[in-house]
Amino acid sequence: MKSLWSVAFLVLLANSVYLYPADGNISYKGYKVYKLQIQNAEQRAFLLDFAKSNGSKISIWQEDTMTMDVLVDPQMQIHFKNYIQAKNIDSREMISDLQSLIDEENGQGATKSDEFSWTRYHELEDIYKFLDDMLSKYPLVTEAFTIAQSYEGQIVRGIKISFKSGNPGIFIESNIHAREWITSATATWFIYELLTSHDLEVRNLAENYDWYIVPVLNVDGFIYTHKKDRLWRKTRQPVAHSDCIGTDGNRNFDSLWMVNGASSNPCDQDYAGPAANSEPEIKGESEFLLANKDKLNILLAFHSYSQMLLSPYGHSRDEVPPNFDDLMQVAEAYAKAVGSLHYESQYTYGTSGGAMYLAPGATLDYAYNEADIQITYTIEMRDTGRHGFVLPPAHILPNCAETMAGIVALVKEADRLGYMQPKYKAIN
């Protein structure tokens, strides 16, 4: 009996080390990511039910009309493989050990220095020091603004770049989902380029449009991804009558909130919150967009991953906005510009609900429906599943270059269609 208790204790100890290694971060050693080919609605329903019934052991990372990327706990992998084989679902292993990818992400170019660079990912403190540096170096064309104070007391900061009065405005939201580090890395690079680049097309963007850029909206969650759990997605505000923490900020806006596709379960990744605007970060951004609606012509929400440009609407698979044709034309310009670079990255586009999945209460729908910003997109950045949310630092600068090329083309096409006059007269 004593030996059995000893074995049990060792197993418990091993599991504790496995989940919480010495540095305090949750470990994903042995976790795998599979890309599944979805042939019909029945297979999708089976997978969604299977994931829901197995809680944290199965996590859907991404899905579109034909595929689904799924993270699987080591203890569930045999059961998972048997399950999808029984349902005739084709699969391909994309990530064989997620922790090794996280270690690579943290290891490449990770030496701390006072210089802010785009060869590694930075924590919130570094990003805010970067903003302070830009504000100090370029005081005549930059201005700080505040979106909100987070649940944990962090300030959600933004920077306005304006070279002259009367410019049409463009708002960029980044890192509403905490684990999508490539978004804030790209947002900070974009700020730097607007202020320093000598490229004629970038200078045109910088000097003829006002930019309102929030590098990290979900500040509490972002800090948590660096300190505890690399894959954390939601905010960090506790939920009444639940042990689960946080809300999906991109389901919490007061625009068709909870109409379709979001969860009322606080433990789900797409939990929409106890009420619309329950999260201070989302309430703050909503109020900012409404207060500045007469200055804003475009809103871009940076996300990862899947290399897609998504327009309203998120609450329906079939309903499209009145200026849908224009939105698709502008999105096509973005995709062509990115595809023309030597990286040859392919972007697709469509409505959020039609091309990806239902997402009511999202930023882009709020901006479109409530703030009357008729050119709004979610930009899903690199990659298409090879690395997923844990994109190696070597991809940062290529992704930045693609984003700049895409936005240059997007703004040009929106201008050609008549959306960039202060304030635009919408084309329907």
Describe the 3D structure.
With 428 residues, the chain is of the alpha/beta class. The chain is built from 13 helices and twelve strands. It has helices spanning 2-19, 41-53, 77-86, 98-107, 124-137, 181-196, 200-208, 219-227, 280-291, 324-339, 352-356, 363-369, 396-416, and strands at 32-37, 58-63, 67-72, 90-95, 142-149, 155-161, 169-174, 210-214, 296-304, 308-311, 348-351, 375-381. It has an eight-stranded mixed β-sheet, sandwiched between helices. A four-stranded antiparallel β-sheet has the order 2-3-1-4, covered by helices on one side. A hairpin with a 5-residue loop joins strand 5 and strand 6. The N and C termini lie far apart (77 Å). Mean pLDDT is 92; it is low at 1-22.
What is the topological layout?
Layout: H1 2-19, E1 32-37, H2 41-53, E2 58-63, E3 67-72, H3 77-86, E4 90-95, H4 98-107, H5 124-137, E5 142-149, E6 155-161, E7 169-174, H6 181-196, H7 200-208, E8 210-214, H8 219-227, H9 280-291, E9 296-304, E10 308-311, H10 324-339, E11 348-351, H11 352-356, H12 363-369, E12 375-381, H13 396-416
Helix pairs in contact: 5-6, 6-13, 10-13
